[in-house]
Amino acid sequence: MSDGEGSGLHSEELPGGVAVLTFDRPARRNAIDWPLYEAFVEAVEGVGRRTDIRVLILRGAGGAFCAGGDISFMKQMYSGEIDKAEVQALQVRFFSAQMALPQPTIAVVDGPAIGLGCTFALSCDLVYAGERARFADPHVQMGLVPGDGGTLLWPLLIGPARAKEFLFTGDPVGAQEALAMGLVNRVYPSEQVFDRALAYANRLAAGPAATIQAIKALTNQTTRALGEQFIRAGLAMESVSQESDYHREAVERFLAGDPLRF
């Protein structure tokens, strides 16, 4: 793999067949803009074509996992500066690439995983959380339908009733609560969480790759089938919500310094 120069994505290949992708825009809490999103999707697609990479770890730099879509990026979409259809096509590419990825994926979350960033984490096979981790999908606070995958993944992981409790408000879930409800696999002290995830990744990488990948494919079969039905409908609903006055006013309030409640 190679870094997307200037994109805010760092890639690294470790001995034994483990690859690490790091969101690296710490000044923006690793929020997703167009260059980062495009580089990330291309990197995931690239990993899927590699037989020598056996496990993928996804993490964030600078005390955050990913704060979701950059608010300035949202403004560029509704102002027409960025073609919304191109963004949606990229979202479909990501979801398809992640669902089809043969290698096991581990998200290492120590800090906020918000909105699209939360979807990136929850779409991984395993989530290892540090004690500082927070998970939230606050699309609703921006007047948006979470069409990028949150309304599929949260109910599958913790059940529809509990998922709606958080999706209706965008309220955050801390690491221990996320563990108790089944949103994450493990919680470790912040200084240990990456090393613990790497140890597990190395264990998987040393195992029978074809067998592990077949187990993943079978286990994810239902999620993948549902995802193929979901993603286009979800993005269509999100697209309608992007045209609302509530959304545009929420973006302007945020850019003026009124923070979201996470």
3D structure, described in words:
The protein has 262 residues and is α/β, with parallel strands linked by helices. The protein has helices at residues 34-48, 71-78, 84-100, 116-122, 150-158, 160-167, 175-181, 193-205, 209-219, 221-242, 245-255, and strands at residues 9-14, 18-23, 55-60, 105-109, 112-114, 126-130, 134-136, 173-174, 186-188. It has one domain (9-191, 208-255): 2-enoyl-CoA Hydratase, Chain A, domain 1 (Alpha-Beta Complex). It is built from eleven helices and nine strands. The strands form two sheets. It has a six-stranded mixed beta sheet, sandwiched between helices. Strands 5-7-8 form a three-stranded mixed beta sheet. Helix 5 packs across helix 6 (160-167). The radius of gyration is 17 Å and the shape is globular.
Task: Summarize the structure in short.
The chain is of the alpha/beta class and 262 residues long. It is built from eleven helices and nine strands.
Which secondary structure elements does this structure contain, and how are they paired or packed?
Blueprint lengths: L8 E6 L3 E6 L10 H15 L6 E6 L10 H8 L5 H17 L4 E5 L2 E3 L1 H7 L3 E5 L3 E3 L13 H9 L1 H8 L5 E2 H7 L4 E3 L4 H13 L3 H11 L1 H22 L2 H11 L7
Parallel strand pairs: 2-3, 3-4, 4-6, 5-7, 6-9
Antiparallel strand pairs: 1-2, 7-8
Helix pairs in contact: 1-3, 2-11, 3-10, 5-6, 5-10
